[in-house]
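User: I'm putting together a teaching handout on how multi-component assemblies are represented. Below are the sequence lines for each component of a complex, exactly as they appear in our records. Could you produce the 3D structure of the whole assembly as structure tokens, so the students can see both representations side by side? Please keep the chain order the same as the input.
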Amino acid sequence: MLENDFLLLGGRKFKSRFFVGTGKLPSPAIIKDIIKESGSELVTVALRRVNFEDREHNILEYIPESVVVAINTSGARNADEAIRIARIAREAGCSNFVKIEVIHDMKYLFPDNDETVKATYVLAKEGFVVLPYVLPDFIIAKKLEDAGASAIMPLGSPIGSNQGLKTKELIEIIIENTTLPVIVDAGIGKPSHAAEAMELGAAAVLVNTAIATSEDPVMAAKAFALGVEAGRMAYIAKMREEQKLASASSPLTGFLR
Amino acid sequence: MSFFEVIQKYNIDFKSYEDNLSLEDIKKSLYKEKKNEFDYLNLLSLKAQNFLEEMAREAQKITFQYFGKTIQLYAPLYISDYCTNSCTYCGFSALNKIKRQKLTLEEIEENAKEIAKTGIKHVLFLTGEAPAITPMEYLLDTVKILKKYFSSISIEIFPMDVEDYKILSEAGVDGLTIYQETYDREIYDKIHLAGKKKDYLYRLDTPERGAIAGFRRVNIGALYGLADPVKDAFFSGLHAKYLQDKYIDTEISISFPRINPAEGNFKPVFHLDDKRFVQFICALRLFLPRCGITISTRENARMRDNLIGLGITRMSAGSKTSVGGYKYENLPNQFEISDNRSVYEIERVIWQKGYEPVFKDWHQF
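Assistant: Of course. Below is the structure of the complete assembly, with chains in the same order as your input.
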């Protein structure tokens, strides 16, 4: 583990830069082992799935108190619904971390960036730590900064697709130009994708489907956490960028030094 | 373009289509990444049974990828069996001389409490088609009561115009179930002897009106046994695709109900055997990866248990198909229940299969 490398988010220090989404898991109880093995300190939970009246089926019961639960607004089709879901969650005793997910396209499940900005503006004013999930768009990232977002969560590729960083160039532009932490969310299918995002300078990575639909979600989560850590180390070590041509490790002109 | 215009584009002789189909064609369709409607039709063919195991494996893989290891549970609540339609296959047909029931609001609440005790959070309430007896006011009162006990409310009632659906949607109904029964227009006309339901086109456009009105989920389907099953499976799949493409913010799901003996002693003309039934479910999954597939207690326990993981995403549990059946016994059923297990028993089976039974997947505002 890297010492003294923390991610600051919503006034909290996160040692782990690996976040976990909890949809599609084969059982709510398994999240406990996923957290334990991966060291994740932030998980997202869809309010629509939280069964407050039924302890056995309530995933919140299985998440240790030290871990931040960001409610996600899954199911919201516009800003107004996302705002209402966030408020219901807070009233129900959830934390003030909220991942805004506004989707009204059931085919690719792409987020609606405009509605997300609107919801961010309202919820940030109400004191929420807003983590907006967006299609990577530099202009939107700047608008989200102004709206009071605590991070930007651009997608790597469509949710659940495991295709990795198809939007790499766009994410890089956002990373270079925003002061906010950039958390790559959606489409991360392998630990190597997670490492790649971190090498680019992402502040964290969120993974869900690839873990939930693996044969062994606990081991998969650990693999992703290691990928995230490796990528982070590479980023901090400022490893050299790729070059188009080979460069000899023993230069021919070395004798001139 | 309406879905009827889509149907008209396909002038298929299903029998000769199958005759001309080679195993090679089917295999190609099975492993093609993006399947078109003819790939789907190939997978529905009798010859495709040669690849049933492969189809099942693919269906399992895709379902897992799109839905994870989860099965969403719901329960139906019949609140009235008054009906002005005469559908030859239905236990609640106006022609059946049964004692009709309509639950009072108190009785609805009693039944809701019974269902809620089992942990069920998604409820589907049903009526026959008798708007004079179950008017909008009564439906809205029902929604108000059910909201106290459930996080998601769906309806399976008589078809309405967009405006009326909007009223229900705004009141808190988030799902609509409406079956075409059969896409074969001639047969449709023969089995719907009288009543508003006789209007094939109005019924065909109903799911669309629901999507326009803002329901989050629209569930369609054909009732197997009424007409050529391949034709009905083909057009119901196309209908789902049409709705998915046109109403991108609506979750479309599909059911494959097979006729079983109801009160009217209807003898199905066509038979969809178990093997073909499973094949149809797998074929639909391969054609429409993200489409929900609902299975009711019309199917028996063995079939239902084995379908977990093979494409289905939603199951009813602990169902009663008589009016107010959760509180009152020995009443006429709309259809015979083949899986009488309790919600708890079904929940255990789902866990044993390594899946999570999802009780709650929506949160009312």
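A couple of points students might notice: Chain B touches chain A at residues 64-70, 119, 121, 151, 216, 244-245, 248-252, 290, 351, 354-363, 365 (CB under 8 Å). DSSP finds 15 helices and eleven strands in chain B.
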